[in-house]
Design a protein that fits this description.
The chain is an alpha/beta fold and about 200 residues long. Helices cover about 25% and strands about 25% of the residues. The protein has a six-stranded mixed beta sheet with strand order 5-6-7-8-10-9. A five-stranded mixed beta sheet has the order 4-3-2-1-11, covered by helices on one side.
């Protein structure tokens, strides 16, 4: 029997160290192979201590991307400080699974243009395109989805939607829209999951 690869994915921690600790305890208890943090880890660059550390002290592999509250420099800082991986514009491989991502958002001071979002995802995808399973990680949700209809503030990303249609990842993890926490839907054959603050455990 082939062992499944177990992931805990969460987003929108917003500087809540108590929540980070709970998620890390859950990752430990459930014996997950990988933790993915889908952005908005900190709250506008405020104190970032104890947001990544609880996972690292439990010897969990961590992938992260920035959200619209983190800033790209903050995500790089967190990754370097704790020895984890920021996959904004990059990719990693674990077992037969390839992970690639784009952080940031299509709103805010460091807003990315939709073409930039697509190009960043394309850059990461090129290195994992031959993997058996492909997982895309973004902060923002794709356009023309149920998630987009659950908020009057945040439009979905046409760049992410285009990337899904071109690259056909098996799963997309996102967060951003708090009201859409836990929502799962399909764009083509890609399962799109808003993992939310409380996180979701997925087995591949």
């Amino acid at each position: 029997m082939v062992k499944k690869f177990k992931i805990l994915a969460a987003g929108d921690i917003h500087g809540d160290s108590g929540l980070a600790k709970k998620l890390a305890e859950r990752a430990d208890k459930e014996n997950v192979d990988l933790v993915i943090l889908c952005g908005d880890i900190v709250q506008h660059g405020r104190d970032s201590i104890n947001l990544i550390k609880p996972f690292v002290t439990r010897n969990k592999k961590v992938l992260l991307i920035p959200g619209n509250h983190d800033g790209f420099a903050t995500a790089d800082f967190l990754a370097e400080m704790y020895g984890v991986k920021n996959i904004h514009g990059y990719s990693v491989k674990y077992d037969n699974i390839g992970f690639f991502g784009c952080g940031g958002a299509n709103i805010g001071l460091e807003a990315l243009q939709e073409k930039e979002i697509y190009d960043i995802l394309e850059k990461g995808f090129k290195n994992i395109k031959d993997m058996n399973k492909k997982i895309m990680v973004t902060h923002v949700h794709p356009s023309d989805t149920k998630m987009e209809k659950l908020t009057s503030f945040f439009t979905g990303s046409t760049g992410i939607k285009k990337a899904i249609e071109r690259f056909k990842p098996d799963v997309l993890f996102c967060s951003h829209v708090h009201e859409a926490e836990g929502v799962e839907e399909y764009v083509g054959k890609t399962k799109v999951i808003n993992v939310g603050r409380n996180g979701k455990i997925i087995e591949l």
